[in-house]
Amino acid sequence: MTLVLIGLGTGGCALSRGDSFARLDDKDFTGALRATQVKASAPTDSDLAFARNAATDVLTKGDKDSSQAWENPETGARGSVTPLAQAYAAEDGRTCRDFLASYVNGRTESWLQGAGCRSGRGRWEIHSLKPWRS
Does residue 101 contact residue 83 with C-beta atoms inside 8 Å? Predict the structure, then answer.
């Protein structure tokens, strides 16, 4: 038994610690993201217009579990809008609903939060859309 334990202790993989082992340049990177690799970019006004239109569409549908995709062909930004919870009555008596919108542009991903309320004519109007703060 002692010989088996000695054999296991001295066996296994041998690694050389020479200069060529696991050496990375500044140009090389692993799967971990460095802070300088992905820079958050703010949505453009055009991106926000597409997201607002998608929000209006999904709130108009009124489905409980629906989302509406959006894409801005000019900037390549895209995402989807998903209503949260149920509609509620605002202080002014209008029916309102909160939503989250995803924002993807290149390797940048973020979330926007917003709210829309039904106008007197029954059309949903988006009255806020800003970066999501958890």
Answer: no
